[in-house]
């Protein structure tokens, strides 16, 4: 179960709130404002839907289905108040004899009660859970508003309760007020057109001008801004065939962009102050010397101002949009802010989700005049006839298209079964075949459509693109989600911070841009993000053919960017944690992430090999994936080209790399042994012996134990990815349904370990990191670690730079903690909990809060301070590897001061490399570890 601090499952990412049992603040791959599931992992906004301060109110006391139904109804009422709905998917049935059901109670374990859709539960019982969980106050079919969702989850963490009722009890003398958690708003954005996005991205890259020598943000010298005229009638690029031809961009002899004037050091220092730069524009000087005060209007208008009215915008040639926003009234920005939060497209006035809803909100005195003013400022476009015919037809609803077909006498055979795309195609064919009828055919048809649609508007493409560029620049230090969610998530953060519902650590932020030394570099970065977004949309639609085409475009852009020696050299002067904010790194990451898709390319069977070889050649932009690159390329040669010798040499080259990480070397060694022991198509003895020479010496294997569990799940179609359900009969005859981890916890209870948590190390890691709060969020001149006020961790978090920059401070703190006893460490935890509780950070406040300090104390007593500090030190040294993969369970016996870290493995489940590495580390630190193998019995088709 190689999961980064979560209970493994494959739930849909459409869930908004995490469950009370699995959430982590430790991985920077996702934003918590973004929609997340109970098994998702992120370090921002880890919200709990429960009413107390800890996620584990889940004791291992089970409720019968009758009791559970009442409980679910109560929970449902709470969820109704919170305006959150979690519908259950279809579950896989379990065959249980009716007589047994009548005679004995069937009880649900905590994890199954909280997330029934993750498990294969009985068919006859799923309706009870589904109907209970779907009950809502008011109308059953009502949908909660985004605003109510946003403010609904104000509830504290639950107090952690061990899975067992401990014999020894401690007085919980430390209490604190229940804190707040806030639920993110869910924002659905549909897919953009494949062709138009790619063509626009290519067009942007082609139109990038040679940067001026004064484009460097850290050395600003710009002219007075000029208002550039932007046409409100922005025609949409005509669609082309879905099969786009990929044209290789030849590297032009452009003037090389100015190199960053950086010293050769691990982490860059601030290369100058914007305030000390020479200025010729009084407008810029005014913004720099006098901080722009964002006030008036509503949250949308203030948010738009906050991302646009910035001095850096001049450096990227966005002064035109700055002038437009500055001249716009608050009423205009109230409407415009809501429009830009929507999917980019035409919006009808009379549609259910159209302009009428904004008018009914009474956001302004004269709605029509505000729209007219926005059109005058060229922020919106109201000329629907300016767009292409197929786009215009797509605005119409299916019944309207059918009526229009009758008007133009289009053949209505099988019209009832016609799809909307087919009807649109019929009109396009009509225009092609009938050149004139009552004048120009296209214009006549457009006029008819315009009369049907009525008033309709769309955001000006140029203005919207400029604002999104401003948003990317403002949010790139902390946003790491999908592009379609960028505006909504950044707005949500801004809104919560304004209302004091969300707080971030206090640190010294430097408003500099290390990477974007020119307008060209920033536009390249934005183009790379747009292409990555298009690939994601195509893969969501399972359109692999067009996804491969876009990936080919990215590959060509990647090679073209690498040819710019000046750009590459400037990026190599800065560390990896800043290097990732560049077009080259975006291309490298996206190409490797989708290497499986590239292997499916039929038009170029060598594409995957070419991409992997190029990535390995320039591995400085894929530092964290070096071992994976070697392994994937070796697989290609082994399976596709049947060249085992070449594959073995690739693995060998990786093992010889001095910069290979410990985990990477372990992964490569495992494959090296596999190649050396191959029985078919054997390697020559010289190569075989060389591979085996890099194989690790026999290491102490972690101890194991095996327990039995009765599987009651029945595998059938649609049940893939759901967790198995195990049953256990108690002395009184009740049947308990539980997960594999809960089954293991119950086993250790019988062994005398009365306290246990299935948290994958979250509590003990949060305890350690909280002791280092001031070191994590401290200032270390001249290093650039904080750029945005919305960062919840320094830019170098999870990298080796983190430890190197703070090495002395970390060693001093560990030395101090070693001299303390358990109570003194708990005093530090209490102090920092009181001061920083619920601050968005690397701490998981669902576990680490003052209510749980007694539990922390008992755990620390059993683990031991030496082991506790060794675990934390390893995390700080290499967080990218060791922030994940800790054992599933920690169980401890307070009476005997014993503690065991347990990795649970169900049937046919194996240890991952990361999990194995963690177990060895824990053994090295002197901790007790164990791998608990669960052997399943019963069930059906359990192979």
UniProtKB/TrEMBL annotation:
InterPro entries: Fan1-like, FAN1-like_euk, FAN1-like_TPR, tRNA_endonuc-like_dom_sf, VRR_NUC. It is found in: Nucleus. Residues 1-35 are annotated as: Disordered. Pfam families: FAN1_TPR, VRR_NUC. Its EC number is 3.1.4.1. The keyword DNA damage applies. Residues 12-25 have a biased composition (Low complexity). It comes from the Eukaryota. Its cofactor is Mg(2+); Mn(2+). GO terms for cellular component: nucleus. Belongs to the FAN1 family. This is Fanconi-associated nuclease.
